[in-house]
Amino acid sequence: MTHPTVIEKLAVLADAAKYDASCASSGTTKRSSKGVKGGIGSTEGMGICHSYAPDGRCISLLKILLTNHCIFDCHYCINRKSSNVARARFTPQEVADLTMAFYRRNYIEGLFLSSGIVKSADHTMEQLVETARILRHEHQFRGYIHLKTIPEASPELVHQAGLLADRVSINVELPTDSGLTRLAPDKNARQIEGAMGGMKMAIAQARDEKKRFRHAPTFAPAGQSTQMIVGADGASDADIVGKASRLYDGFRLRRVYYSAFSPIPDASAVLPLKRPPLIREHRLYQSDWLMRFYGYSAQEVVQATDSMGNLPLDIDPKLAWALKFREHFPVDVNRCSREMLLRVPGLGTRAVGQILASRRHRTLRLEDVGKLTVSVAKVRPFIVTCDWRPTLLTDRADLRAMLAPKAEQLELFAA
């Protein structure tokens, strides 16, 4: 029996990693090999998986699994123990060599490494840490590294991962404890949250030491993130938003990622037959933005859901909230607070900042606001300017139908 080549293993393990959405590299500190003897790599500049930094730069990452062998039998996972898929395994040295080869060809500028659980959680975590150690210490690699840590592994190994990686992540997998118990019987919600709590304390301690001691080691400078699968169980959007809010507040996460459940070959009978609409995932990301950047509480986002606790698919959550609470509108863009401007549908954070800056010098007209937004028609029912007042427009019964995006047939070869 011939052993698979590195390229053959790469084909299997890169494909197996595509289900993990939490590979963004935003928030990392600037790290450069300049001045490091024999060093290579940087977390700056343009560089296969594409993520985006806060300033809009595209970050290319080699996104693979160390192995897709797994002793766990999570129903929703294509790499579960009982799944009939091709299996492969890299050694830490092979992953390190691949990363350096891809980097030298300017294909990537970092690594996102996850793994199935093979032998034991500690054994797998040791392999992940060893991969990062080879890159950092033997190759002097200063590029971006994101490690997916294993909550069942010993705290000492997880701590070593934080010392070597820019970002670490621990997936909570499902939004409810009951869903996790039913679909991932080998995992424990309290254990996952305990590992996230330990990581939070280690990150805070490292930042405190860095303030007091200039040469203190960095620890996961890009923080920690997590991922939830959407649509594999019966959790509503209200459940998911509530869980995300508790995770942000309790563990100071940089991001919560949402991954729409995708039916897999030889699926378990307890899983739904159809995947949820991808627009549902998009609406959850929009609700996440409302909580992180627009000052909405989780309870307010939940107020935008329907009777089943799900966000509307035809309109965004911000517009859904505004339509439910029309008594707060219209607002005068020349007088109202920043908090209320952020709640106007169609106005983003940048547009609100420009309105606040501009109104110090002159009175704004509807035309001025229109220049700051993609669709002034969406904004008009909710604002007052010196030359515009919506009168009865805000209270129209058909306002939702007027503002909802029109359905259109997409063209494959449209210009």
UniProtKB/TrEMBL annotation:
Essential cofactor(s): [4Fe-4S] cluster
Gene3D superfamilies linked to this entry: Aldolase class I (3.20.20.70)
Metal-binding is among the record's keywords: yes
GO MF entry, a single one: metal ion binding
Alphabetized UniProt keyword annotations: Iron, Iron-sulfur, Metal-binding, S-adenosyl-L-methionine
Superkingdom: Bacteria
Positions of transmembrane segments: none
Signal peptide start-end: none
Domain Radical SAM core: 54-297
NCBIfam families xrefs: rSAM_link_UDG
Protein name: Putative DNA modification/repair radical SAM protein
Species whose genome carries this gene: Alteraurantiacibacter buctensis
